[in-house]
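Justification of computing resources. Each target in the renewal requires a structure prediction run like the one illustrated here; the chain below, 416 residues long, is used simply to show the kind of job we budget for.
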Amino acid sequence: MKIIEELLHDIEIPRMVKIRQHFHAPEIENVPQAVHEAIQSAGVLNRIGAGERVAIAVGSRGVAMLPLLVRETVNAVKSVGGIPFIVPAMGSHGGATAQGQMDVLEQLGVTETAIGAPIQATMEVVEIGKLPNNLPIYMDKYAFGADKVIVINRIKPHTAFRGPVESGLMKMITIGLGKQKGAEAAHAFSFKYMAEHVIEMAKIAIERVPIIFGLATMENAYERPAKIVVIPAEELIHREPKLLKEAKSLMPRIMFNPIDVLVVDEIGKDISGDGMDPNITGRYATPYASGGPAVARIAVLGLTKKTHGNANGIGMADISTKKVMEQTILEKGYANALTSTVTQVVKLPMILYNEKLAVKAAIKTCNAFDLSKVRLVRIKNTLEIQEIWISEAMLEEAKSLKSIEILSEPALMELS
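Resulting structure tokens:
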């Protein structure tokens, strides 16, 4: 390690200023009421007959107010005599086991007690058809056997591909409800074809499975519900693309571009499927998605507790620490990579002994013309970017932006 310390000895870490970014952020005040109003305005409850078993598909993402969304959907089904139950719709997440997927739901607050309906989890699927290229389409066994199916999910940009629909209701139908086999099949031809496959697979699923509607939520820049919409199944293909455009307009962002060094305190599967959201970092694992700031170097300093050692996404960092490697359980990230066929996310970056050396290494290698004026941004994670830190060299630019509030005087960065 001595030679590394010598190489980095003269690299200065800039003083940092804490700022607050202000985003346009519409927010729903009464979520239960909004759920019922959306369901009523869509006129979909008459599709449920008394005594019919209704599977409600719920995913693994940390959707804002998810237990409330599920509970009120359950109540709406009960109000017309339906018998609701929950099925996990999360592809291979939760270790690709039924119990693991129930555990994920519990961590998200979706329990039988909280939502008033039983949870039926299985990894068994039924093949419901094939695309012309022989790609099989699978459906959760319990959802396939239900009288009716409802899907709940957040609509937002995907982290690895661009298309008319990305993360949302149709993707949950094809990949989430397809369980591990469905996820594996959908990813088999790479993300290059994901946009068209999600739509074509969803069309067949809607024809052959009694899906009656989807409840979509869009979130503002502060991860709060901004809009709730209910879409009849037959309208999903036409209406979800419009909602995706709206969701993109509500996303938070780092209001500086370019960035020489981005320091991320923590990554994790609870933050993003990619550990850190590339829509925020500008660093994508595939060539089929783009957007965000131009960032020369990314240094990752930690893993979240809730990721339980899954460092999926660490491969998108340039520098990390010995502590991160000690916390990493490689097999967990590898399982995600093998299912998605994207291996870039689990490659190992340069590993330094501590945080200070990691940040110094990122600065040294960022190729800025003047390292004394390095444009360095530090964030906790890619979900929490309202309050962030910027290097002193960026202060005048920050003062010129109406959406930026200066919160502190320049100070030394706290690093282990």
